[in-house]
Design brief:
By secondary structure, this protein is an alpha+beta fold. The protein has helices spanning 19-24, 28-33, 62-74, 108-122; strands at 10-12, 38-43, 47-49, 54-56, 78-81, 132-137, 156-159, 166-173, 177-183, 186-192, 195-202, 209-214, 217-223, 244-249. It is built from four helices and 14 strands. Strand 12 and strand 13 form a beta hairpin.
Length: 259
């Protein structure tokens, strides 16, 4: 840093999409500021690289949220989204789906950006004006069978481990409420306060159902739309460690729109 400071406008880092690295990055801006340089903070939702048979455990949305809060609390000058559209490494923030899945998925990381980017730019957490639920989960366990792959047993956890097989329901609530996740024959509930709450439950085969209730009555409910497979893996015989995501409110489910 001392060598580059005289010829640099600022410093940055490419980062890693793991909760531990994202949380630790809060101290990075201060290191740059000690040299009177600005700092550009990386914010990375996830890293699953089928082309390299590598993945980094992002902990559903945790790595992404930790990176944003580190940028805010650490006093970063700029933020770099790593990345907008790198589909080959599954790190895209741009809404995403594929030919086999519905159009109302892939919006979770994109929608979360609205909240955290506003907070970063204004210095104040946006007021939560309506209830929104976000979901993040993989459609199969990290160790699921993948017999059609050329290297079916060598997908390597490169960082952030151990691999997590969880469904996350992330709530933004105007008032306290009860969160519910149903998957297969199991139902899990959590009393959530107003504000932001992360609720994780074990991954299991089936299509998860999510709901928010108050006073014993549903405020709204919806299905995750992405089916979760068991250890036998996907019908295609290939591994998919992407965290699929989406969001919904009482008004509607967020969807992708094509021109």
């Amino acid at each position: 840093a001392a060598s580059f400071a005289p010829i640099s406008y600022g410093f940055g880092d490419w980062g890693t999409a793991t909760p531990s690295a994202s949380a630790a990055s809060e101290t990075w801006p201060a290191s740059a500021h000690a040299y009177k340089e600005l700092f550009m903070m990386p914010v990375d939702p996830q890293q699953y690289r089928p082309k390299d048979f590598l993945f980094w455990e992002a902990g559903n949305s945790l790595a992404f949220r930790d990176a944003w809060t580190s940028a805010i609390a650490g006093g970063a000058d700029w933020v770099q989204l790593v990345t907008w559209s790198d589909f080959s490494e599954s790190s895209e923030v741009e809404p995403y789906t594929d030919a086999t899945l519905a159009a109302d998925i892939g919006t979770g990381f994109y929608d979360l950006d609205a909240y955290y980017a506003s907070w970063f730019l204004t210095g104040e957490a946006p007021k939560i004006t309506h209830d929104v639920l976000y979901y993040f989960y993989r459609r199969e366990p990290a160790g699921a069978a993948a017999p059609a792959q050329t290297k079916p047993t060598t997908v390597v956890l490169a960082g952030g481990g151990p691999a997590m097989d969880d469904i996350e329901l992330l709530s933004f609530l105007t008032a306290p409420g009860k969160l519910k996740v149903t998957i297969g024959t199991q139902t899990f509930t959590k009393d959530a306060p107003a504000g932001v709450t992360s609720f994780t439950v074990p991954l299991a085969p089936g299509t998860p159902q999510f709901s928010l209730s108050r006073g014993g009555a549903d405020v709204f409910s919806f299905a995750g739309t992405v089916e979760i497979h068991g250890m036998g893996g996907l019908d295609a015989g290939t591994l998919d460690l992407t965290y699929w995501s989406g969001s919904a409110s009482a008004a509607r489910t967020c969807e992708l729109h094509t021109p």
